[in-house]
Amino acid sequence: MPATRTLLLPLVRAALAGTSALALVASAQAQGPQQETTSSGDSTALETLVVNGGSGGVITAEGYVGISSATGAKVDTPFLETPQSISTVTEQQLKDRNPQTLLDALAYTPSSRVGAYGFDPRFDSFTVRGFDVTYTGVFRDNLRQPGAGSSLFKTEPYGLEGVSILRGPSSALYGASGAGGLFNLISKRPTEETLREVQVQYGSHDRYQGQFDFSGPVNETDPVYYRLTGLLRDADTEQVGVPDDRAYIAPAFTWKPDEDTSLTILGEYSRTKTGGTAAYYYDTTTGKVTDFFAGNPAFNDSIQTQGRVGYEFEHRFNDTFVFRQNARVSTLNIDADWAFAYAPNAVDPTLIDRSAGTFDERLNAIVIDNQLESNFETGALDHTLLTGVDLTKLRWRSLDGRGVSPPLDTKNPTRGDAVSPIDFQTRVVQDQWQVGTYLQDQIRYDAWTLTIGGRYDWVSSDTDTTDLLADTLTTVSQTDKEFSGRIGLTYETDFGLAPYISYSTAFAPNAGLNLETNQPFKPTESSQEEIGVKWLLPNSNTLISAALFNIDQKNGLYYEVVNLPSGPANIQVQRGKLRSRGFEIEANTSLDNGLSLTAAYSYTDMKIIQGPAGTVGNYVSSVPRHMAAIWADYTLPEDGPGAGLGFGAGARFIGSSYGNDANTIRNSGRVLFDAAVHYDFAALDQKYDGLRLQVNATNLFDRREPVCSAGFCYRDQGRTVIGSLRYNW
């Protein structure tokens, strides 16, 4: 693609979003020359091939450096003007690191704690600034992606063109979101330019995968564009009885009859097969995690099917008003059997008793967001006023049964044993409605930007719990309402430095049921004070950001081992009050000498202010005070002897933490190393243009230490090596 096209596309895209984004992109272009985009798509040029930016949070980026997104304000806003800590995982980062899970994709972002539950391909569970965001902090295309119980939507990284991360309470615009912030997963969208890619992969544990990504105009005359992304994977994992199979397809279409109107339809369907449990047996007598699989390979299937279809509509009436409506319908079904070894057999010490269970869950959700953006002036002040109303309707149904499995034989630990059929004993159905109305004004005066916004939510939950054995029904109804707000002030200097200060709150209803009390969860409330600085270095494609924060939260959800009538279980519980204070710094750069780098450090002091006896004043389990990560990718010069060859390397430091809230178990600190090597065959001959070989290794030195969270212990995921051969044309 000619370099002139690379420079023009960002200007067209930014103009659709507003003059502030246009000015920043133009400024970024003026700071240095842009690289050409090759047919293989590997460059540091601005990633702006999408037909329309919309309000789904699409990232304007240059290599590893995010410049603007709608994630922080629901209208495309330069990161320098967003009065809150914000990060991006750009499309180029995803290509270079080839993550296989959402946790892999987030591993190098500041304050993101991944791996707290060790090896577990079932869920994308993680914390930010010490707070769990698994249920309330994951958004898809700027719309809430709900979760309840074990019903959590799985994310296929190949279906993403990036991730935007807004840290801290953010309910002033988004409603149901937690104290840690939100992660906006941005789906691949149709492109103006023709895009064709096929790829095959082979890796550790007999991993076979094929994938494709096609996009472009439907024909030469109609303003209709398409994208079709898919993959098929057959794979085992490091744990016997736990596969990692997936089929995934994601169609998308955009209709753009004129420059003022666009409609994008986004769809997805996937089927994933893995295990009902992936844990190793934890010997409570020795306090150590063994190498014995705690489950039963013959009774350990988990099949999850999920689908979603939604749209993003935008129409600009004139220079003042823009209307948007984003909506999505999604459904998820998970059917799983599991077994769990928990204690030595009283008669034969070579056997370990195992409990067993089965569950069938379904989650249906409808989310719709209506927005009106108004751009106007009042004297010397420029306003971007956003008003909106959004609705979330959620229905969660869970069938659950508990039983026993034959004991684990430590002399033959990989043997599968037949389990007698287990009937469902409990049925839970929860219906939840949430309606929120919000208003935000971005007021600009000279180099100052004042962002002020507020939102009011009404939430209604009805929960029916049926004891199928006793044939009894318990109904609980709950109504919640709350105001959330944010106010922030930013000042942008002529040399790209932008200090800011902000205060924000969050209010999040919680789907699901507290199995210990058989009551629905109370809403989680939080507030944050934050001060920080962002610096887009002049004449260098480099963004550095730093922040100090203080977050108070009450009624948060966490997992703990609780003794239920059916036996010990690792379930969600609510705590009284938590406080997180800390500091984080991040740097991202993509230079024209072939070097791209991302680096982050975070310090988090996370304590229990109010909670169970014996925990007040203690540190929250599995939240390290120190974390750091660095990843660099370097491609050798095109005119040198190693033309076409490139290397990547990364290190992730996870500091020590406590393994329970009583602070009697301690997780040791560790450093995990990742690496990559890639080669573009076009360096041999132009007839191979678009052909690229890449090998990625995660946890290169196979460090597999125990990690404990909420009093239960796991083991780090071991080394994985994946080779991929990609062809673009």
TrEMBL record:
InterPro entries: Beta-barrel_TonB (IPR000531), Beta-barrel_TonB_sf (IPR036942), Plug_dom (IPR012910), Plug_dom_sf (IPR037066), TonB-dep_rcpt-like (IPR039426), TonB_sidphr_rcpt (IPR010105). The keyword Nucleotide-binding does not apply. Keywords: Cell outer membrane, Ion transport, Iron, Iron transport, Membrane, Receptor, Signal, TonB box, Transmembrane, Transmembrane beta strand, Transport. Residues 1-30 form the signal peptide. Transmembrane segments: none annotated. It is found in: Cell outer membrane. Residues 255-700 form the TonB-dependent receptor-like beta-barrel domain. Residues 81-181 form the TonB-dependent receptor plug domain. It is a multi-pass membrane protein. Its main location: membrane. It comes from the Bacteria. The keyword Transmembrane applies. Belongs to the TonB-dependent receptor family. This is TonB-dependent siderophore receptor.
